């Protein structure tokens, strides 16, 4: 049990932190403290994954301002619109041939969630395969149903997650979200290694 805790507790912690940053506005009550902590490099010593040499360049990105665009404006552009999102955060955009929301892959995720009795409370009608929601779902599973976590990662998150993060890093045009994409890629790589997860190989359409 001690050994399991050393694996699952860091996943729960980092999944909650990163998931919130993808899902909520940076100045929201959920995220404002997290953003403030990541804007100082003291978090580097506490992050459970990666070497200092890998994390310090990410910390520098997260701490940088952007004179032309605030962090909140960047979040609006990257996650809300009104224009086409340069890196859409929903799995079905990458996994379904038509690149639609609420596609077949979303239905498969819903079926899997129902089988595992995983519930997500959403404030509005939206797809459950949002990248931030899936990170928070992974955190919940790590705490409550750890035996189900590898399947979530292998079948519903990792097959498209790395592609999404690469797009976000390339298209973010804001240092905070470039750093967030890098930190999340590094963290997911460690999750995958520690749980010995092999992602399902699928064709990506974005």
UniProtKB/TrEMBL annotation:
<keyword id="KW-0143">Chaperone</keyword>
<dbReference type="InterPro" id="IPR036411">
    <property type="entry name" value="TorD-like_sf"/>
</dbReference>
<dbReference type="InterPro" id="IPR026269">
    <property type="entry name" value="DmsD-type"/>
</dbReference>
<dbReference type="GO" id="GO:0005048">
    <property type="term" value="F:signal sequence binding"/>
</dbReference>
<comment type="similarity">
    <text>Belongs to the TorD/DmsD family. DmsD subfamily.</text>
</comment>
<dbReference type="InterPro" id="IPR050289">
    <property type="entry name" value="TorD/DmsD_chaperones"/>
</dbReference>
<comment type="function">
    <text>Required for biogenesis/assembly of DMSO reductase, but not for the interaction of the DmsA signal peptide with the Tat system. May be part of a chaperone cascade complex that facilitates a folding-maturation pathway for the substrate protein.</text>
</comment>
<dbReference type="InterPro" id="IPR028611">
    <property type="entry name" value="DmsD_chaperone"/>
</dbReference>
<dbReference type="Pfam" id="PF02613">
    <property type="entry name" value="Nitrate_red_del"/>
</dbReference>
<dbReference type="InterPro" id="IPR020945">
    <property type="entry name" value="DMSO/NO3_reduct_chaperone"/>
</dbReference>
<protein>
    <recommendedName>
        <fullName>Tat proofreading chaperone DmsD</fullName>
    </recommendedName>
</protein>
